[in-house]
Request: fold
Amino acid sequence: MLKSILCISLLLGGISLQATTVELKGKAAVTGTILENKKDQIIIDIGYTVLVIPKSQVVKLLDDNAKTAKAVTATPEPAVDRGFYSTSVVPPPERSVRELVNELGEAVVQVRTPAGLGSGFFINPDGFLITNFHVTEGETQISVEVYLQKNGQIERKSYKQVRIVALNKFADLALLHIEDKDAPKFSSVTLGDADKMAVGDTVFAIGSPLGLERTVTEGILSTKTRQFEGELYLQTTAQINPGNSGGPLFNLRGEVIGVTNMKITFGEGLGFAIPVEAVKFFLNHRESYAYDNDNPSNPYRYLEPPSRTRKTNSQ
Reply:
């Protein structure tokens, strides 16, 4: 392993690369050229050798070539549909669930219909949010309850002018938009990359199980490829219950990696989420899934398969 890393260092020797200082826990620091910034470690060339530093020991990265040294932070990646949702080019550092919940809580909402309730989350500040199709199925009278933090207190605000923008019944996804005239700019989430997660990674969900809003549950990613009816789901030990449907499943970088949508009711720690890759596909092609108020079922026309029996009878 070290030999291969040294070879990389020699190959890059003639290239002018930017010097970076890696500040470590315990007030230590290392300066060199970063060869690779991985999910769990940083590989840095310090001139006479190459070091592999675990991300858990890194406090921050400093650009030595800048006029004033400042922390290198995650830069939002231009979204495929620019401005509609956010992703990150450089993964932000991992933090504790406690820190992240305080930061992300305002972006998670409760979605209510006359038939029941679920959860959801804002994907941009303009009031567009994701939830499950089954949360809004057959309903047009929808309200969204938002929880704002002001002066250390939680303030509830309910919005009742909610429009269905797009639906995908088969992916169990719905895109909603708050259209109340007094709606402010909302806190929103960043969409991550479920493919880069590893089995055993810590994840957590925020939602309204059984109507208990702003409930946080933590667990691990049990598998990334649990198959149901031809679709792959993320399986997690984070507790998922009725009311969590449509809520976000986060990694420790504060990125959404899935949308919680179901559990096995006769077991514990068997919750499931739609991978965020399916959410991005849905959002990028939302015009194809656009909801029509005049005829909600117009995208679908179900035809019965051919039958030899019927053909024989008709003859």
The longest helix spans residues 2-11. Confidence is low (pLDDT under 50) at residues 1-16, 66-82, 311-315. The first strand starts at residue 19 and ends at 24. DSSP finds five helices and 21 strands in the chain.
